Amino acid sequence: MKKLKVLAALMAVAMLTPLVAGCAGGQPMPPIKLLAGDTEAAKRYSMGIQEILRNNLGIEIQIENVDFNTRLQKMRNGEFSMCLAGWLGDYNDPSTFLDLWKTDSPYNDVKWSNKRYDELMNKARESSDPIERMKAMQEAEKILLEELPIVPLYWPQRNYVEQNYVKGVLRSVIGPEIDLKWAYTEGRPGGDDPQHLNLNLGENPPDLFSCTTTDVVSFDVLNHVMEGLVRLTPDGTYAQGSGLAESWTESEDGTHFEFKIKANAKWSDGSPVTAHDFEYAWKTALDPRTASQYNYMLFWIKGAEELANIQVPDKETDPQGYEAAIAKIEEAKKNLGVKAVDDRTLVVDLKNRTPWFISLLAFPTYFPVKESAHKKWGEEYATDKNKMLYCGPFVIDKWVPDSEMVLKKNPYYWDKDNVKLEYIHFDMIKDINTPVTMFDAQQLDTMGVPGDFIPKYLEAGMLKQMPDATCWYLELNLKDPLFQNAKIRKAISLAFDRKTFCDNVLRNYSKPATSFTPPTIQGENATVSFAEKYIGKVLNETANKEEAVKLFKQGLKELGYKYEPVKTGK
After folding, report:
1. DSSP readout, 305-334?
2. Nearest in space to 414 (alpha carbons), one of 262, 225, 269
3. What count of other Cβ atoms lies within 10 Å of the Cβ of residue 9?
């Protein structure tokens, strides 16, 4: 009997051993898919990320390259595990970057939430003390870099070339990357008449409705066919009279503004641009039913945030709640700090002094919209060249989606006499080589230079460079069980060799992002870099492979997955 008991015990141990071993080893790690664009450059960059993580972390990520609009939709809908994304600063303050990761931000694709972070960013928004604001955002960014729901990769350098006959192109670190209002040619082979420029837009603009647009491609088009109360001038200022506002006054405490609209400001149908068009546009952007992802750009205005945050129940399932919400919206609009006193006078009240407010007025969300035109075309507004009105230097004359767009000079523009170009032709080419070939053949007049071709134009003495207020990063979706683990997120960052990526993949003078906010964004004043003074170098420039693998293994074990490094041949 004793022998039978011993035999039974031994058999039980034998049967349990593989199960215990399986539990100790864990389940296979689920695949990680990297969402990226489908341009030739985006494909190369995503392959570079794939190779670095393969070599330094022993994992094989999958790549999903999709078109620009699809990528934006997938990001907003959280349909990704890892995503290559970038952000260009909208104004010269760290909050233009750090506000992205507040819990309620429409751009918080990773669904990260940190109560202290939110408190600090709200404090920065509400405070009028420059140093207090910087210190609040300093602590906020340190929290972001500690928890790493995103992994900053690099700060790009803008590299471009222009034909020697191209003159007057205005480029800016903040806001629209290029402005052709003052551009012209002088000495073009074959003649300058008619005055025109040929450029590559790269993508089809996804959304040309200024109240809802979110992307830089649409911004660049809108900046040429629309205009706000001000416009950036060639001397780098937002001077009175530069846009649709003839002049303005500001209260001593910097919270009350009165703008006088130009008497000769007109829409492309010949009707006058009025203060009511600005009031309507701003209220439309803030109306929660519009679901504008850029409505926060207006939150400096009194009552704006309260209006945008009104919850609207479903009309069918909760008709009473819906009607109550609509009543709240209308009341909030009445109390909003923007009012058209008459056709030419717009009054704006801010919550606090906002030094960059005037520059914000050149941003697309602040552009006017004519109410009757918007209501006439409804949801089709700005989806076709004939279903929108223009008030900028140009109008859209031709638009073949994913192929080409032609802008022609706007005869109703108030400053048309200073617009020399008769038309602008945009191609929408995604690959790297074709625009270079076209530029060399003088079929394109200016272009951004891909990294592979920088030596060529540098040697020819044609390369032009300027800093950029942009950060590119990996978004790690916290809905993915893998990235809910802090050790795995930290391991991704430690494994990423930012210097190698910049030197060997980008090859375009980009710099390793050792923090999030780019060094080009100022601190409490224009003489101070927020990143340099308040943040410093927090993230590694080169990979810490040993520590990365150690943390990655620990994170996988905590989640019940086993580490099975791929063979790299190194």
Report:
1. HHHHT-----TTT-HHHHHHHHHHHHHHHH
2. 262
3. 10
* 94-143 pLDDT per residue, tens: 999 999 999 999 899 999 999 999 999 999 998 989 999 999 999 999 99
Chain center to CA of 164:
31
User: Could you write out the DSSP letters of every residue in 200-231?
Assistant: E--S--S---TTT--SHHHHHHHHHH---S--
Residues of the chain with pLDDT under 70: 1-25, 569-570
- Whether a cis peptide bond, with omega within 30° of 0, leads into 512 is no
Comparing CA positions, the residue from 157, 200, 161 lying closest to residue 429 is 200
Take residue 309 and report the two structure tokens written for it.
């945050």
SS3 260: strand
With a pLDDT cut of 70, the percent of the chain lying above it is 95
Sign, Cα dihedral of 288, 292, 296, 299: negative
Q: Which amino acid is at 59?
A: I
Q: In terms of C-beta distances under 8 Å and separation of at least 24 residues, what long-range contacts does 237-241 make, across chains too?
A: 238/358, 238/359, 238/361, 238/362
Q: What DSSP line would sit under 327-388, residue for residue?
A: HHHHHHHHHSSEEEEETTEEEEEBSS--TTHHHHTTSGGGS---HHHHHHHGGGTTSSTTSS
DSSP 266-278: B-TTSPBP-HHHH
CA distance 315 to 320: 8
Taking alpha carbons only, the member of 279, 310, 308 closest to residue 296 is 308
Q: Residue 323's CB: how many other CB atoms inside 10 A?
A: 12
In 392-544, where does DSSP find H-type helix? 433-440, 454-459, 486-495, 498-500, 530
| 356: nearest Cα among 230, 181, 241, 209 | 230
